[in-house]
Fold this protein.
Amino acid sequence: MNAEADALAAVKDADRKHVFHSWSAQELIDPLAVAGAEGSYFWDYQGNRYLDFSSALVYTNIGYQHPRVTAAVQEQAARLTTVAPGFAVDVRSEAARLIAERTPGDLDKIFFTNAGAEAVENAVRMARLHTGRPKVLSAYRSYHGATSTAINLTGDARRFGNDSATAGVVHFWGPFAYRSPFYAANEAEECERALRHLEDTIVFEGPQSVAAVILETVGGAPGVLVHPDGYLPGVREICDRHGIVLIFDEVMVGFGRTGRWFAAEHWDVTPDLLCFAKGVTSGYVPLGGVAISAAIAATFARRPYPGGLTYSGHVLACAAAVATINVMEEEGVVEQSARTGTELLGPGLRALAERHPSVGEVRGLGTFWALELVRDRRTREPLVPYNASGADNAPMAEFGAACRKGGLWPLLAGNRIHVAPPCNIAAQDVAKGLAILDEALTVADAHTV
């Protein structure tokens, strides 16, 4: 065996024996062994290169191995690798300042966590303590993380095996015009009826018992759900009227993903708490956090906040955040993400929809899009059933295999492919990815009626 084959065998053997993978039946998976990555690509030990249209798990916003960020982490490690969260330290303060400068409104205090789920956990805790109320409302089509509160807030099928029914969570239907739960004829009607449904849910739960409403500003894992104009401002008004905290989960869509620093800017709405992670460091070192409004920060001015984390604001992660934000600013990555969506991905994906009967809808912003795949455009029957697995999921499995065979790594969820390449992906790589998708969609087309 050559060196690459020996390395591959060793990695796969150790993985099989010792790594317990998330969301998986352990004996039914065979993870690809990745040897390296750069920019918008990664490759395996056999020399196969993949154009990453998933940005790992929607977090490599500036691509893999950006030299300025890797250098910043190395320099910080040489200077100070760690310090307890109770100290003031330059790189942590600078990361907080840079984030606060880009969040909307008066979200000027930053509580650092290790990742997005912990950000959600702490945002909910802050809301409950601030209001003195127990309940939190979240949408059915949502994903908020895999820790205890976050998974109970989650509205998709991953909640099922974890739902305690004791978490103080109430779910409601958000707007989704393509598969309207409100039998709406258009987006304006969908928006109006969704807002009425939310208000009714609050009224019948008792507004005095509702601490917060949490929403993904753009729905991520549920299918890149872009809220209709008027919905988020309407939710803000309802929350204000009932004294309810509004939490935006921007873990997936913050830091340039939708063509703005934060997706809330598209609708000029400021939440009371904003959760972030992923793109803040491009995933190079785990970091998340909560951006906190002045009113909620004041609650804990003289009252201790009963929460903390050993690695809150870890200096290596903060160094990665500072470097990532500066790279995005100086290289115009947020603006590039917006242009890529408007000029390349949006038009390109819509052109695919015109050619392929398996594409029911195209939706997205910036470098965050989804193709809704269907068996029948007229009835909108999904290509595979909800929460499909095994044989039921065969059409999507075949489609994913065709993408990978062409050299494209897809992000598949249910009956959708989510198109989320790095925010700074080159135009020629967008064109290459669209061409591979064009070919792979013929596999999905074979399952249409």
